[in-house]
Amino acid sequence: MTHAGAGQPNASRHLLTIEGMSREQILMLLGRARQFKSALDGTDRFPSPLAGRVVVNLFFENSTRTRTSFEMAARRLGAEVVNFDIPSSSVKKGETIEDTVETLGAMGPEVIIVRHSAAGVPALIARHVRGSVVNAGDGSHEHPTQALLDALTISEQFGRIDGVKVAMVGDILHSRVARSNLWCLGALGASITLVGPTSLVPDGLADVPWGGGRTARVCHDLAEGIRGADVVYLLRIQTERMKQAMFPSVGEYRRLYGMDSQRLSHAGPKAVVMHPGPFNRGIEISGELADSDRSLILRQVANGVPTRMAVLATLAEGARR
Ligand code: NCD
After folding, report:
1. What is the pLDDT of residues 146-163, one digit of tens each?
2. Does the predicted model carry a pTM greater than 0.70?
3. Ligand 1 centroid vs 45 CA: distance in angstroms?
4. What is the whole-number distance in angstroms between the Cα of residue 321 and the centre of ligand 1?
């Protein structure tokens, strides 16, 4: 859905990044997601643009919620879903990703949903298949549908995104969710503060122009960083992406950056907490706060299905044009 540059896969057929998407393209997808959500909530029947089509879930990295969410979205649109089982696949037998994907592509799927631990693999795959590719998370790079469902959740809560103050707390360095949200929420006019230890929130992140050309503020003190925030967005420490320990101990991280109801009082009076999951109770968020009415975590999960329906339906229509 982004504009293709030279040597890039045909991006209007794929959803690989939020980077490069315009505010209008994002708002169009959010509008469609809202329509699908009210159709799911109501008794209206909605069209089945993927009836008789095959959607492949190609997950090289473990996932429960994202894969299930894509699967539900695709089924709601009438598709048949094939979960390509990586551990038992030929990839483990030495086949290259390109060959595996060309084999899969020969079966003619309409959409391939890809998650991989290396940045750029969904874009690589997009060059080798005729169907559309959706990036469901590539390394520390991007996770576009997570950002879209987060934007939907924030706009439902506040009636707007423009001017909403979002503090993202935790392992920004390794977070594809943070990166996609910086592009998406920036393009929609939110103001963003990145909070965490210097090892996980390097000062240089403040120099990057994100969505809408906006820069984020960087802050290493929790109370100061979330002051006045409308949304406190917590992230998991992604130890699986670290080559060495990047903070002294989990106990120290919790003491300095763990969020609970009392600490949340430093934020705005109506502040809510969000988290893409999976969350670690008692580390980045207290169990009591996660279960409280200040938490939008389950709403985020619920919004994943209509958001992914909007993406799949839009790509399917684009591919047929
Ligand atoms: C995130 C991911 O996998 O990028 N989770 C998700 O998709 N809901 C964040 C994480 O793993 O911490």
Report:
1. 999 999 999 999 999 999
2. yes
3. 31
4. 33
